[in-house]
Amino acid sequence: MKKWKKMLLTGILAVGLVVPGIVMIGCGHKVDNDATYTITYDYGKALKFFKVTQESQTIQSNEWLTDMPAIRSEYEDAFKGWFIAGSDKQIKNYDFVGGDVTLEARFNVDKVWISGLYQNGKYMMTWDEIKQAYPDAIVDGEIKNKPVNSYFSNLLGELVLDAEVTTIKDGAFQGCYRLTSITIPDEVTQIGRDVFSGCTMLSNITVEIGNGVYDSRDNCNAIIETSTNKLITGGKLTVIPNSVTSIESGAFDGRDLISITIPSSVISIGSRAFGRCDDLVSIIVDEGNTVYDSRNNCNAIIDTSTNTLIAGCKSTIIPNSVTSIGNSAFYGCTFTTITIPNSVTSIGLLAFQGCNRLTSITIPNKVNNIGTQAFNNCMGLISVIFPNSVTNMGYAVFSACSKLESLYYLGNINDWNNINVEHNGDHGLTDSKIYFYVENEANVPNDGGNYWHYADDGETPVIWEVVA
Fold first, then answer.
1. Residue 422 and residue 163: Cα distance in Å, rounded?
2. Above 80 in pLDDT, residue 187?
3. Are 408 and 423 in contact (CB under 8 A)?
4. Do 90 and 124 belong to one domain?
5. Beta partners for residue 346, in sequence order
6. SS3 for 408?
7. Best-predicted range by mean pLDDT among 16-20, 184-188, 230-234?
8. Comparing C-alpha atoms, which of 315, 228, 244, 328 is closest to residue 278?
9. 190 and 125, same structural domain?
């Protein structure tokens, strides 16, 4: 009984005791019953996050605060709540206030979906406002290597960095797919790798004239390392100057690029330089280039001395003279079919990584080596014709090919088991059936195994039906 009485008394003190003419809040705080208080709401840049908005409301001093502006459901997880301006005191519906007060809307910046601040192709915050709203984005003059899209996502349209920024770390703006324009100030002296990877709409790139480390010479819409003439970042509208000698790995990764011309001055191109350029249909190498070519109008870049195709696109036709498909050569390409000629003897690592629309592939019978994850994440791939000429396979060649049902092997089970596969034989074919080639029905073993042959067209695989 004593415990119950104590709990009851505590409850009464917590909600306040109302007597005529006086309101007591908490422990003896008196409020004039006849007064009115004005509640002012400060939405900051988040006005669109709320269902119904109001600039202010008036309540009697003896009333609970109710009908506060409600957040839209899609932002509920990010909304911290309403706080008294300049303090950490949170105010909720059915709280008392002790006077006129301004309430600020606050959000968890790691969870908020910033698209609500993005309108008409422009970001709605100045650089100073971005720094104030997202203080963790810049530390000691560096844009941290935690991708900025963790903070900004769709927010960016056009962005001019200010003199505070001196270093941009790896992947800083990765995935900011609505970023259309970037200006690099004089003070930036270090730019990491894959800084703008996946920025599909990036078109206009300017380096301020006073920058002594980088430039965008000839209005090329690219970032070039001045001392080495290396192009480290390009965009949708880039025209590669004749003075550029090398192109950084991933320089154009994920851009809405349609066509590109490689000038005669370029003697080095990194892997994945044009990866995931979904709209790229035209690749031309200047005829004066002595290191690379695009022979037979193939819409690809070929290393002339080794006949290795190092970069292709969805309209590439691989020439019969190509002997090797290079690392990441078709990374993220959007073709549905591709013909690999019989001249090819090796396929590099990640060569067809992420070619999600590819449904089938025939690997020619002169290929002896297939690199690690060569067909990784080809989620639309259903069938593969695989030669018995292969002696070495890298790790997880067919990993994450979730629809791959059938691999038609042009050899027997002993040949298959003799292939050297890295990492304890993990080729990624966990849910696929492997069929072994038997040309004549009379030679099909009666052992319950899986066997196939070519149809009369010499191209289509047909499974032998074993009749008991």
1. 49
2. yes
3. no
4. no
5. 324, 369
6. strand
7. 230-234
8. 315
9. yes
Q: Which amino acid is at 162?
A: D
- Whether 145 and 200 map to the same domain: the answer is yes
Residues 72 and 215 placed together within one structural domain of the fold: no
User: What range defines the domain where residue 158 resides?
Assistant: 114-256
Q: Which two tokens stand for residue 347?
A: 């396929």
Whether 148 and 249 map to the same domain: the answer is yes
- 214 and 320 in one domain? no
Say what the pTM is. Answer: 0.72
Q: Who contacts 3 (Cβ-Cβ below 8 Å, separation ≥6)?
A: none
Of the ranges 51-65, 103-117, 118-132, the best mean pLDDT one:
51-65
Structure-block tokens of residue 441: 């029905």
Specify the higher pLDDT residue, 221 or 116. 221
Q: Which long-range contacts (CB under 8 A, 24 or more apart) does 408-417 make?
A: 408/383, 408/384, 408/435, 408/437, 408/452, 408/461, 409/434, 409/435, 409/436, 409/437, 410/365, 410/385, 410/386, 410/437, 411/387, 411/436, 411/437, 412/436, 412/437, 413/449, 415/388
Domain presence at residue 337: yes
Residue 136 has pLDDT above 90, yes or no: no
What integer is the mean pLDDT of 420-439? 85
Q: Which long-range contacts (CB under 8 A, 24 or more apart) does 67-75 make?
A: 67/93, 68/41, 68/92, 68/93, 68/103, 69/41, 69/43, 69/105, 74/113, 75/49, 75/107, 75/112, 75/113, 75/116
- Select the more confidently predicted residue: 33 or 72: 72
Q: 331 and 231 in one domain? A: no
Handedness of CA 31, 37, 43, 49 (dihedral sign): positive
Which of 256, 283, 316 is at the close of a domain?
Answer: 256
What are 243-300's pLDDT values in tens digits? 999 999 999 999 999 999 999 999 999 999 999 999 999 999 999 999 999 999 999 9
DSSP conformation letters of 57-71:
EEEETTSPB--PPPB
Query: How many distinct structural domains can be found in the chain?
Result: 4
Let me know whether 457 and 336 are in one domain. Answer: yes
State pLDDT tens for residues 97-124. 889 999 998 876 444 433 333 333 333 4
Domain boundary among 43, 74, 107: 107
Strands 369-370 and 392-393: parallel
Query: What does 237-296 look like in DSSP terms, one character per residue?
Result: T----TT--EE-TTTTTT----EEEE-TT--EE-TTTTTT-TT--EEEE-TT-SSEE-GG
Dump strand ranges (E) for 140-189. Answer: 142-143, 158-160, 167-168, 181-184
